[in-house]
Amino acid sequence: MTQVLKDKIIEVCNTKIAQKGNTVGLSFYAFFKNENDNPKLLMEAATWWIETHQLDHFEKAVKIKNMIKRL
Question: Which pLDDT belongs to residue 43?
Fold first, then answer.
């Protein structure tokens, strides 16, 4: 996983946790705008989320953040 994507995921997780608390859930779509302006990065996130880790559509932001920090 690229550092750009790792940084983006950590940033989004931190923001969501700050706004809604430690129980907030999110999907990998939370890391992207509504328009598909970076399909390569979107596919990288989708592959990591779905194929590599077989995560549910929504997961706790805290869990995702911790997984990324271990990479």
Answer: 95
| Residue type, position 34, single letter | N
With the CA atoms of 61, 62, 64 and 65 taken in that order, what torsion angle do they form, in degrees rounded to the nearest 10? 110
pTM, two decimals, is 0.92
Rounded CA separation 46/67 (Å): 15
> Residue 18, Cα to own-chain centre: how many angstroms?
15
Cβ pair 36, 44 in contact under 8 A: no
The whole-number pLDDT of residue 37 equals 84
DSSP the chain: --HHHHHHHHHHHHHHHHHH-TT-EE-GGGGS-SS-S-HHHHHHHHIIIIIIT---SSEEHHHHHHHHHT-
DSSP-assigned beta bridge partners for residue 59: 26
